[in-house]
Amino acid sequence: MAENFASKQAEAVLGHGDQDRATHTDISNPDREGGRYADESGEKMKALAWMGKNDVRVVETSKPKIVDDHDAIVKVTGTTVCGSDVHLMHGVILQIEKGDILGHEFCGVVEAVGPAVKNLKPGERVVNSFVVSCGECKYCKQKLTTACEKTNASRLHEQLYGSRMGGIFGYSHFTGGYAGGQAEYVRVPLADNNLMKLPHSIPDEKGLYLADVLPTSYHSVSYTGVNKDDTVAIWGLGPIGMMACFWAFLKGAKRVIGIDNNWRTDYAKSKIDRLETINYTTLGEGETVPRKIHEMVPGGVDVSIDATGGEYAKGFMHKLELKIGAEQDTSEMINECLMSTRKFGTVGIIGDYVGFTNHFNVGSLMERGIKLIGCGQSPVHKYWQELLEMVEHGTVDPTIMLTHRFQLDDIAKAYHLQEKRESGLVKCFVETRFSPRRTEGTPELTRL
Ligand SMILES: NC(=O)c1ccc[n+]([C@@H]2O[C@H](COP(=O)([O-])OP(=O)(O)OC[C@H]3O[C@@H](n4cnc5c(N)ncnc54)[C@H](O)[C@@H]3O)[C@@H](O)[C@H]2O)c1
Ligand SMILES: [Zn+2]
Ligand SMILES: [Zn+2]
């Protein structure tokens, strides 16, 4: 949090670099700047806002208006909570501000479009990409849309990482300051690029996950190059890790091992045939995850993927170092990945890491010729169409990770369940007052 405060100071000094933006950034709530971005109708809506460290709340705010000609307003019929939202709640993501509306995954119905929107009409069902892409910069042209150069004005991003990445809905001013979709309405900038139409055959309870979980988990195995007959180990069996296990098998992996520290190992195994798991809390004295993996796959696995996140320190030293700000991320899971991978194998990091880490086993990486791949924020657009078709044809059923249905009114409590990984929650679907009736076969509503 001290870092978050410092990041605001730094941005003030560096200046906000939004000269070359393709859209208005940093409209994280329609009521910002005295209601400047509120719809003229005066209509109010409910939305989940960040109010301080560990404090997210459903608040009443104004319905957003069209700000740029390329905008659309979407009436939200489904949203969810992501593992990344928990990092935001904890305040570990820089440049989050009180009142920012969160949520980067949503589906709904187009309510209104600006005059420059070509491919969308009011009434059409859509899902967003969590990325805000301009569609025209050199990265967007290659569909590496999270690297967009025109949708994020954070100079701090540039200073810390070397260059700026693109915008993300509902994910702090570090990634553009866009209001998110854990709300009844949301403004979608550059709507032709950032919304995909959903066919009738795909209900909200499946289509919603095209916003993030499906493209992110798919990207993690594609980009690390999981191949036929590979052995693969995946750390973290949240929605991202669990679906990455699914995709690894689809790519032809012969063995996939999922690692976690709780009941999610059993849950994932019950949904994915042939998955092997390690719940490391059950390991004996002196046993470690890498040792266990070498026992299961002598020599180590071909590919390891870290789908946990840098804030989840395991040992005392890293817990302390994180707490006092001596590092921003633990290196423990990445070190485990390195040591569990065969010589000249590959490690991919898809879980979120934000800054510097200590005690990184660079020796294992260098000496054993491991390729370490940062998977980046997933370039959703690269995979969108292919994944839509896979959902439509039943090649993948995203509801294997869907365990709960909540109401928007209860979403703050859902954050805390997600944080503690309690009550059998893997992934939720959050309905709003605009949602159609629940699709048969998906979880019934739970009130919290
Ligand atoms: N790169 C991207 O584009 C992108 C997109 C979405 C999410 N993410 C990130 O991916 C990660 C996973 O997302 P999610 O929604 O599945 O989150 P999640 O919090 O539901 O899942 C993380 C899992 O990791 C497990 N875990 C924690 N420490 C572990 C350890 N030492 N070893 C093994 N498992 C451990 C947790 O028990 C949990 O089940 C998060 O960090 C999230 O922010 C990245
Ligand atoms: Zn997400
Ligand atoms: Zn771009």
From TrEMBL:
<keyword id="KW-0862">Zinc</keyword>
<protein>
    <submittedName>
        <fullName>Chaperonin 10-like protein</fullName>
    </submittedName>
</protein>
<dbReference type="GO" id="GO:0008270">
    <property type="term" value="F:zinc ion binding"/>
</dbReference>
<dbReference type="InterPro" id="IPR013154">
    <property type="entry name" value="ADH-like_N"/>
</dbReference>
<dbReference type="GO" id="GO:0016491">
    <property type="term" value="F:oxidoreductase activity"/>
</dbReference>
<dbReference type="InterPro" id="IPR002328">
    <property type="entry name" value="ADH_Zn_CS"/>
</dbReference>
<keyword id="KW-0479">Metal-binding</keyword>
<keyword id="KW-0560">Oxidoreductase</keyword>
<dbReference type="Pfam" id="PF08240">
    <property type="entry name" value="ADH_N"/>
</dbReference>
<feature type="domain" description="Alcohol dehydrogenase-like N-terminal">
    <location>
        <begin position="69"/>
        <end position="199"/>
    </location>
</feature>
<feature type="compositionally biased region" description="Basic and acidic residues">
    <location>
        <begin position="17"/>
        <end position="39"/>
    </location>
</feature>
<feature type="region of interest" description="Disordered">
    <location>
        <begin position="1"/>
        <end position="39"/>
    </location>
</feature>
<dbReference type="InterPro" id="IPR011032">
    <property type="entry name" value="GroES-like_sf"/>
</dbReference>
<dbReference type="InterPro" id="IPR036291">
    <property type="entry name" value="NAD(P)-bd_dom_sf"/>
</dbReference>
